[in-house]
Design goal:
This protein is of the alpha+beta class. It has one domain. The chain has 5 helices and 9 strands. The C terminus is likely disordered.
């Protein structure tokens, strides 16, 4: 049976996003304080509990989810805030199709839930789409050649709004389905990320 390491329902995703979207984004983008006491106080202001630093600061939210505040180091600008809503991995290549189909069903449910909250995305498509837009801010996209080679993102949906320092919101699925010539076990992940606007910022 495939292993689930993250499994948030569509309602939980919307509730988590509802708490997240109203934060003071300029303060988030400026970066997490380096000093431990200040960092704890900073996190508490958002209703978060600091956990550990690995590719950024991980925090626990009031809703029980975990967020990654991606940055190079404490005190450096935050590039994105990321929440993994679904992650699964097959135990055997025979389960690969089940992992792929389950991830596809989850994807559809998450997109429908976010559509109900924010409206339809500015763009939605797959890894081979030729019309991927250049979103404002620090767009998460590689060029078309790289996307086709890596099939990453496997699927994506983008929302953005005409508000200064507001995030570019990305729902992304990554999928390693394995192939007959490379029969590895499949793994799938769906994340919601809020990407920071372009331009240097400095932590307070």
């Amino acid at each position: 049976m495939p292993a689930l390491t993250a499994d948030r329902s569509p309602d939980q995703l919307v509730a988590e996003f509802d708490r997240l979207i109203g934060v003071d984004w300029p303060t988030v983008w400026a970066g997490v304080p380096e000093e431990e006491v200040k960092r704890a106080h900073w996190c508490a202001g958002f209703g978060w509990q600091a956990l550990w630093f690995e590719l950024g600061l991980w925090v626990r939210t009031a809703g029980g989810g975990r967020l990654l505040l991606a940055s190079d180091a404490p005190g450096r600008p935050v590039a994105r805030v990321e929440h993994t809503v679904c992650a699964s991995r097959a135990d055997d290549p025979a389960e690969n199709r089940h992992v792929e189909e389950s991830a596809g069903a989850r994807w559809s449910a998450y997109v429908t839930a976010l559509n109900g909250y924010m409206g339809f995305p500015r763009w939605e498509g797959g890894w081979d789409a030729p019309d991927v837009p250049e979103p404002p801010g620090r767009g998460p996209w590689h060029d078309l050649r790289r996307r086709r080679e890596d099939r990453d993102p496997y699927r994506a949906a983008l929302w953005w709004f005409s508000v200064p320092l507001a995030p570019v919101i990305e729902l992304r699925m990554t999928l390693n389905p394995g192939t007959s010539s490379r029969p590895t076990v499949a793994n799938a992940r769906i994340t919601l990320a809020c990407h920071g606007p372009v331009g240097p910022r400095t932590a307070a």
